[in-house]
Structure formats: C-alpha cells, structure tokens
Amino acid sequence: MIITIDGPAAAGKGTVSKVLAERYRLAYFDTGMIYRAVGLEMVLSGTDLTDEKAALKFAQDMTFEKMMALSVHPDFRSDIGGQAASKVSAMPDVRQALLKMQQNFALNPVFADGTPAEGAIYDGRDTGTVICPHADIKFFVTASTEVRAMRRFKEFVAKGMDTTYEKVLADMIARDKRDSERQVAPMKPAADAILIDTSDMDAATEIDVVSKLVEEKLSKIA
Ligand code: DC
C-alpha cells in the first residue's frame, strides 16, 4: 500500500505520517529531506544557491547515506535548511536527478534498519502528483499560514533556536510562494487527493480524522 501526504511546511504531515506508518507497518519517506540535504551541502561548501550546475552535481551525487549523515546538522531543520531546500527544489534538473531515488523507494520499501515494509507513506509536496501518481490513498494537508508559522516558531524555540515569530512567518510565506509557483512539480493537491485543513485541529484530532479516512478507503479497496 502506498499513501501520499502532501502540503506546505508545518501543516501536520510528519505527525500523521509517522502514526500511520507505525499502524500499517509502512516505511516512511520524508521526501523534503533530500532537498534539504542537497541545499545544506551547498550552504556548507559555500556554493551559491543560484548555481544550477553545481546544484545538479550535488543532486546527482546524493545518496540515502549522505542524506542521513547531513540530517543531524543543526541547520538541516532550521530556516536556513528550509530555504536552501526550497531554492534547489525549484530547479527542474535537480528534481529530475532526484526523481528515480524517490520512485524506487515505492518499489522496494524498507524500514530504517533495512527490513522490508508492506508499503510506504510519502510526505512531501508532489508525491501524490508526480512521485507516486498511482498511490492507493492521497492526502493534501494544509493549515493557515499564521497557524503553521506559530507551530514552526514553537518547534524552533523548543530546540533553543534564536528566532522570532515574525521571521518564521516571513520565511514561510516566501517558501510557500516559491514551492507553489515553481514551473516543475509545484505544490498542489492531486486531483484525487483528500483535502484536510488542520488549522483548528490538534495532533490527536488530525490523526483521528485521517485514520478514519484511511479505514474508509481501505474498506472500499478490499
Ligand atoms: O517538507 P520540508 O519542509 O522538509 O521540505 C523542504 C523543501 O523541499 C520545501 O520547501 C520544498 C521542497 N520539497 C519539494 O519540492 N518536493 C517534495 N516532495 C518535498 C519537499
């Protein structure tokens, strides 16, 4: 079984993906991590983030192992990492170079320890439209920009990062704009995606709503 959950940053995709992955024994693929890895490698090596040729080379050389190694860097999840990821992900050649790596995971999904899984859950921007257009169940999860910025701000503060709500909000607006207006694979719901607005939901409610929808879909597929 393949489930895709797309939507903007801090909409609640990761939270629900992890619970569903556990419940249905699915491997979880946070596809934003590969763009973060490419972007962060460029930042750390002092490469100009508008250099498309260099970005393509970093993307072509990206592996799961490198991505996991970069994921422990403090800027991997910071605004610096998020903005860098958003910039490189707007480059068509970079997306093309990272396409197969993402699609192959659905053919042979494995857990972090390498054991085979019964399917996969993808979290991203274009996983229901481009990466896995034939997914069994697709969601597009969103929330108001202000709510998402507040969630992200609280996460950053909890991690001890020095930032302000206003800065997080401005970065989120810039990132949403770039992610939804880029020419290739812009962030948008698949035609057959179920739309969920989590603005007024806490995590437990969101998990409950999505789980019921998955059960409904599964009863129709079976
Ligand atoms: O989900 P995230 O915040 O970790 O994603 C970081 C950036 O990566 C996001 O701003 C856009 C890009 N991205 C993408 O273009 N396509 C995906 N499937 C996932 C992420």
Describe it.
The chain is of the alpha/beta class. 55% of the residues lie in helices and 11% in strands. The protein has one domain: 3-Layer(aba) Sandwich (Rossmann fold), CATH 3.40.50. It has helices at 13-23, 32-44, 52-60, 64-70, 79-89, 92-107, 127-131, 145-158, 165-181, 203-221; strands at residues 2-6, 27-30, 120-124, 137-142, 194-197. It has a 5-stranded parallel β-sheet, with helices on both faces. α2 (32-44) packs across α3 and α8 (145-158) crosses α9 (165-181). The model has no long low-confidence stretch (mean pLDDT 96). The structure holds 2'-deoxycytidine-5'-monophosphate. Residues 9, 31-32, 35-36, 82, 85-86, 89, 124-127, 175, 179 line the site of 2'-deoxycytidine-5'-monophosphate.
Name the CATH superfamily assignment: P-loop containing nucleotide triphosphate hydrolases
Biggest sheet record: 5 strands, parallel
Task: List ligands, each type once.
Answer: 2'-deoxycytidine-5'-monophosphate
Name given to the CATH architecture: 3-Layer(aba) Sandwich
Secondary structure layout:
Elements: E1 2-6, H1 13-23, E2 27-30, H2 32-44, H3 52-60, H4 64-70, H5 79-89, H6 92-107, E3 120-124, H7 127-131, E4 137-142, H8 145-158, H9 165-181, E5 194-197, H10 203-221
Parallel strand pairs: 1-3, 1-4, 2-3, 4-5
Helix pairs in contact: 1-10, 2-3, 2-4, 2-5, 3-6, 5-9, 8-9
Bound molecules: 2'-deoxycytidine-5'-monophosphate.
What labels describe this entry?
222 residues, alpha/beta, Rossmann fold, binds 2'-deoxycytidine-5'-monophosphate
Short description:
This protein has 222 residues and is an alpha/beta fold.
